[in-house]
Write a structure and sequence with these properties.
Blueprint: H1 12-18, E1 23-28, H2 34-48, E2 55-59, H3 62-75, E3 86-87, H4 88-98, H5 101-104, H6 117-125, H7 131-142, H8 159-174, H9 183-193, E4 205-208, H10 216-225, E5 230-235, H11 250-258, E6 263-267, H12 275-285, E7 307-315, H13 316-332, E8 340-344, H14 347-359, E9 364-366, H15 376-389, H16 394-401, H17 410-423, H18 427-436, H19 445-462, H20 467-474, H21 483-495, H22 500-512, E10 523-526, E11 538-542, H23 559-577, E12 591-601, H24 602-607, E13 614-616, E14 619-621, H25 626-630, E15 639-640
Parallel strand pairs: 1-5, 1-6, 2-3, 2-4, 4-5, 7-12, 7-15, 8-10, 8-11, 9-10, 11-12
Antiparallel strand pairs: 12-14, 13-14
Helix pairs in contact: 1-2, 2-3, 4-9, 6-7, 7-8, 9-10, 12-23, 13-14, 15-16, 18-19, 20-21, 21-22
The protein binds a DNA duplex (15 and 10 nucleotides) through loops.
Length: about 650
DNA sequence: GATCACTTGTTCCCG
DNA sequence: ACAAGTGATC
């Protein structure tokens, strides 16, 4: 199939695919076919004979990368097999390893699992303003300290930033590890300071999807790699929802001024949504003030108006049951479960809906806790496996030493670490000496006790004859929390039978790259952030209450800041409602259901971060989201559920 | 008397 | 889930 098959010359899609300007920006609203246009552009390049290895498609998620690959294979474009879509993270890791950029900094590429961050935070947060502040600061560190679109990446902004960076890196060096998010600042520094590095000339064509979600450091990496490359960026400032990683809608807006002479093409026809949803989306997003070029989506008449409902329940319990019953009913009447998408901004709302659906025997998948490593027990056993493979895995040891303590035994561990740093002994060796009484450090009793437990367990594993027995002991068959991890471990055993280290490497990479199912057959429940890039014939957004969607900014913040936060919440809701897909020829008009409730237990409200307007007898009283009113006249009147 | 583990009040999430 | 407050322990 040729890249231009079925495209009308002069149509925006054709223009995007064929544009020969070395700088091209595509602004594409939700459902306007940007992935389709990108795919055609890549196909054209491959047909022209551009080497697949010199094309870099950057996507926001691994799923999107695999989608692109699959679609190109489906088009049967020559060379598509070698074409690899990449997330910036995976690119960063690959470059840091292959170009020895990491080795030059004396760092070790042992990434920290999410759960392994806990002891790190416990170890450094006391001296740096508490856990919450430190977490925020680490986010800024991962953005190379460029918090604003106007910031230059690579420079700390305050003495506190500098102090945190010193202590963080010192911890990471001592533990011979790195943060996953650290790949971005490290790659930024590398390409910034080594303009002659191979990576800066490796690609002749760079395509970036979801550009509005790149922070300044990520934008900088693209720019530094594209001196001699043709660049095409695609995105939508109205869908910028990642301010918590310091991305800003101004990034994609200013790209045009920073790249003089660039071509600019807009995709405005919403091919996905029912026309009323398009009208509602346009009305909603027009309430945002920070929009230098107000745009609107064009509805596609043949999609039909769609079916839209807004329902308010008395209590959160009724809302959860109401949504579950609605879904059960739809499925009973022939809607495939995979056609239903439930969005809820907090798991306190999403998880009960999930549980209710499971009880009703509707096939459902929750995306709140998707990892094999979400359960505490799975984390413990995985850490033990790491330590079984290497006693010198300092992160795994640190994690296990802190177990069953609410501050991860930070004080005692600090003494141990100080001892290690002054003598050069590794933590494992020092602990062996402490345990045998060869040396003594005050206040380390409970740490040593914990160490002895770890040793006992490892000795038991060592007594087992083979790796398969170790897997059986560590990840027994009868435990639901361990099921997914066990499945991956068994899968790994088939590939690597003997060597421990190879086994762990293989297992770790399987965990990092979960298989993405091509066919969705379950009802999906997730947050609005996760729904980006998805679409579904039935979309339900639950928990549309003031305080949750939008979440209300802290009153102590400056007005401009509060305004910006509300506008991002509005963009989030805009992303949510535009997930609805109309396929009239298949009898799927596209259905959007927005629900809210009047009351929920105060404890749940607090857990979800809602500051209720009023509370009485343990109940929080809630109002429907302000966004309902902003949906304009195309939205139906809310009804009681 | 410094530092520990554990209990008691408040509660900024989202990939 | 976190930060601050409490008797208990080194």
């Amino acid at each position: 199939m040729a890249w231009s098959d079925g495209l009308n010359q002069g149509s925006p899609t054709y223009e995007i695919a064929s544009c020969e300007n070395a700088r091209l920006r595509v602004v594409a609203g939700p459902g306007t076919g940007k992935s389709y246009a990108m795919k055609r552009r890549v196909a054209r390049l491959l047909e022209l004979g551009v080497e697949a290895s010199s094309i870099l498609p950057v996507t926001f998620t691994r799923v999107a990368a695999e989608d692109l690959h699959r679609e190109l294979v489906g088009m049967n474009v020559q060379g598509c097999d070698e074409l690899e879509g990449r997330t910036l993270h995976s690119l960063a890791f690959k470059v840091l390893m292959s170009e020895h950029a990491l080795a030059a900094t004396g760092r070790v590429a042992r990434p920290l699992n999410e759960f392994e961050l806990e002891p790190l935070l416990a170890d450094i947060s006391d001296a740096h303003g508490g856990k919450r502040i430190v977490k925020k600061r680490i986010k800024a560190f991962e953005a190379a300290w460029a918090r604003l679109q106007s910031d230059e990446p690579g420079y700390v902004q305050s003495a506190q930033d500098a102090a945190l960076e010193r202590e963080l890196i010192s911890w990471l060096i001592f533990h011979e590890s790195m943060l996953i998010g650290e790949a971005i600042p490290l790659l930024y520094q590398y390409v910034r300071n080594n303009p002659a590095a191979p990576i800066c000339a490796e690609f002749s064509h760079i395509l970036v999807d979801e550009y509005q979600d790149l922070n300044k450091a990520e934008q900088g990496i693209i720019q530094l790699m594209s001196e001699n490359a043709e660049v095409c960026i695609v995105g939508d400032d109205d869908q910028s929802i990642y301010s918590f990683k310091h991305a800003h809608p101004d990034g994609i807006r200013q790209w045009l001024t920073a790249n003089a002479g660039a071509a600019d093409i807009e995709l405005a026809e919403c091919r996905r949504c029912p026309t009323r949803v398009v009208d509602m989306g346009n009305a909603l997003i027009s309430h945002n003030q920070d929009r230098p070029v107000p745009r609107a989506l064009n509805p596609r008449a043949q999609n039909g108006p769609g079916e839209i409902e807004i329902i308010q329940y008395n209590t959160i319990i009724n809302e959860i049951n109401g949504v579950a019953a609605l879904i059960e009913n739809l499925v009973a009447n022939g809607t495939p479960p995979g056609d239903i998408l439930v969005l809820a901004q907090r798991s306190v709302i999403g998880t009960p809906i999930y549980e209710s659906l499971v009880q009703r025997e509707v096939p459902t998948r929750s995306y709140y806790a998707e990892s094999e490593l979400s359960a505490a027990d799975a984390q413990r056993r995985f850490a033990l496996l790491k330590l079984f493979v290497s006693r010198e895995d300092r992160v795994a040891l640190r994690w296990l030493l802190g177990l069953n303590s609410n501050n991860w035994r930070a004080g005692a561990y600090r003494r141990l670490r100080a001892h290690c740093e002054s003598t050069g002994a590794s933590p494992w060796i020092a602990l062996e000496q402490l345990s045998s009484g060869a040396i003594a450090i005050p206040y380390c009793g409970s740490l040593i006790q914990q160490f002895n437990l770890i040793c006992e367990y490892l000795a038991r594993l060592e007594a087992l004859p083979g790796l398969a027995d170790v897997v059986n002991e560590l990840l027994p068959d009868n435990n639901a929390d361990l099921r997914d991890l066990r499945a991956l471990a068994l899968q790994t055993l088939d590939i690597v039978a003997g060597d421990r280290e190879e086994f762990l490497v293989e297992l770790t990479s399987l965990i990092a790259k979960p298989e993405v199912p091509t066919e969705v057959s379950d009802v999906r429940i997730m947050s609005l952030h996760k729904s980006k890039g998805l679409s579904s014939p039935v979309t339900i957004i639950a928990g549309c209450v003031q305080g949750l969607l939008p979440r209300l900014p802290d009153a102590s913040l400056p007005l401009a800041e509060r305004q910006a936060q509300i506008e991002e919440q509005r963009r989030l809701f805009y992303v949510g409602i535009t997930r609805v897909k109309s396929v009239p020829e298949d009898g799927k008009p596209g259905r959007l259901v927005l629900t809210s409730s009047r009351q929920m237990p105060v404890a749940d409200a607090m857990k979800a971060g809602i500051q209720p307007a009023q509370t009485y007898m343990g109940n929080a009283y809630l109002n429907a989201s302000q966004f309902f009113r902003e949906l304009g006249p195309s939205a139906p009147a809310p009804r009681q559920g």
